[in-house]
Write a structure and sequence with these properties.
By secondary structure, the protein is mainly α. Helix content is 73%, strand content 0%. It has a domain at 67-158 and 228-333. The chain is built from 24 helices and no strands. The longest helix is centred in the last third of the chain and has 29 residues, at 450-478.
Amino acid sequence: MLEGVEPSWLSILPAAVTIVLAFATRQVILALFAGVVCGGLVLAARTGDWEDLNIVSRFLLPAIGSASFAQILIIYLWCLGGLVGMWGATGGARHFAETVGGKIARGPKSALFFGWLVGVLFHQGGTVSTVLAGTTVKPVTDRYRVSHEELSYVVDSTASPIATLIPFNAWPLYVAGLVAGTIPLIPTEQRAYEFFIGSIPYNFYALLAVLSTLLFALGWLPWIGARMQRARIRSRETGALDAPEAEPMLASEAPASSDAVGGAPAYSPSLADFVVPIGVLLSIAIVPYVVYGAFRINEAFLSAVLSAMLVARLRGMRLRRIMTAFVHGCQSMTIGAIVLALAVTLKEVAGALDTAGFVVTLVGDAVPFVALPALLGLICMIIAFSTGTSWGTYAVVFPIAMPLAYALNPDPTFVSVCFGTVLGGAVFGDQCSPISDTTILSSMFTGCDLMDHVRTQLPIALVAAVLGIALSTLIAASL
């Protein structure tokens, strides 16, 4: 054990090391690895068991051997990677973007608006929205010299925020399971679901984030930050969609839309190459949820990539070319897989050190009820930013926040304000964290350097977060 140092304070050190190194070095893999190593040191210092220094057996293997990471790897990386590979080979996504987006986009502003609209339509949240929106919109915005920093912000800021505002996805059910029975106002999961919907008007960060993104796309947002402004000027004036030192995780150019292997005839793209897989994905994801309350996202993605292969085969693409496109798409996810593996490992570190629990306990129960929404929002922002997960933050904060809010002021409106602040605060932290899967994938699928995305997005999102907390405090003070 380290002498003279309270171990609980050290629980925030791995996350702090990761965040600082990510910003300082722009090397996210190095930053994540350093955070994991730091976690081993802190845990060993706390327990006195130097076996905890073995980060492979203590953190890495449990994290990447978990069912949650297997889902990320197989569904979000391999299925999505394979689907993107198929769209690259068939030209389906580009054809859809040119056909549909071409009717909307006439310049940079309307192209970004098309991106905002697609993000709202694909409102399943998180990785689903970021990948689908980024893949669909990028060909259109590239044509009109929209910087990848701008596009990645629009894609990221219409992913998780919109999922907490349009409740036709898994988010309300997940949160309902966390808060049901915690206070008399929410005795059952059904009532918790209704409470979620009733609290949407008080989810100020999500509302402001979606509105800010719309104004940004239309060019009406009065302040976008110096870095974003430079990116906008650079792309419009020079056509450089990335900064000179940028290192995107995913290659900008997709595989050629051709079957011209060994002299084979070219493959002619059609709307079916994109619409059928997307229709299958959304139908399997949404219909069972609406009808039976069952969420089938895993089956949806697997069916989508299989349907993309089937459509390509029926339209004449050779089986060998189909499998090559699928494998190429999976290979393009290698760097993302490494980053996400280290990210979930860091979450394992945070769990072992009880990082989130420690931050929550700092609030205690001796706070003025007027200040509680702001404090809950700030705590959620810090936890989600440090751990890269909004759902993980919800799991820790909601069971504590609801009884605390009810104890200080049982007024349903006040509890709803606190509820909405927790929803929005965690989304902000998740959206802006460089170790969040949504941040990583939104930058990956828009062709943007990860840290360029984080640096340009953060100032705009931070303004929305501050305004959201201020509104929550004003509502609380009026009660």
